[in-house]
Amino acid sequence: MQPNLDFIIGLCRDAGDIIMEGFGKKQVIEYKGPVDLVTEYDRKSEDFIMGRILSEFPGHYIVAEESGNKTGSEDHRWFIDPIDGTSNYARGLPIFCVSIAYERGGERVLAVVFDPNRDELFTAERGGGAFLNGESIHVTETSEVIKSLLVTGFPHDLQQENNNIKEFMRMIHKAQSVRRLGSAVLDQLYVACGRLDGYWEVGISPWDIAAGTLIIEEAGGVVTRVDGSKDYMVPPYDIVAANPALHPKIREELARA
User: Fold this and answer.
1) Do 176 and 239 belong to one domain?
2) Per the structure, how many domains does the chain have?
3) Where are the alpha helices (DSSP H) in 75-183?
4) Given 103, 136, 169, which residue is the final one in a domain?
5) What range defines the domain where residue 35 resides?
6) For 200-223, how does the pLDDT look when each residue is reduced to its tens digit (9 = 90+)?
7) 133: Cα separation from own chain's centroid
8) H or E segment and range at residue 153
């Protein structure tokens, strides 16, 4: 058995309702690291999503941010981020989302992301295009870095060698501007729908990129590792995403940082 897009849409919308119940309220917060936090609603959302998946597809493999891996058939893998943008969520900043991707036979084929604050539902099925609330979306046609509005993020541990600081400092001088929104998934979706021109990040996790990158590709964008290789779903995770004309130019500037 395998899921369809409607099943995942239902999961994302129901999980969105769960996290909005806690939004703006005092949170029970735990810390996985000095600045890497998790709220009680991260766990509630993830428990709900995993419970539904395992009820319908008990033999499937799940990669989840808070619960780790639930082993099963690797021919059917799920990537779950119950709240992407937890730091924003915990402080009442309305920039976060629920992200779910499904992979069959080593290829991601379904992706759904729901932003409950804006009631924005992003969906993609491999080979079928990308959509926002049912309307087709596409990446921009911006071809010059200096005219591009970019977005990025930073790893939780800025003491690590590959922390994106040098790259960020270069790109803020080379691009029109660079945003930092605090939700890697929304960063990617805003590239997919043309609100932003390009995205790059290092030190991320598979659940951060599994859904958003498929949506970008189905919206006509190009996604690779920073070094240009195509297998960006293997560790260590880093990506560059943009339209076909801009993508190599962003990579070239990053290489010069």
Assistant:
1) yes
2) 2
3) 86-90, 165-174
4) 136
5) 5-136
6) 999 999 999 999 999 999 999 999
7) 18
8) none
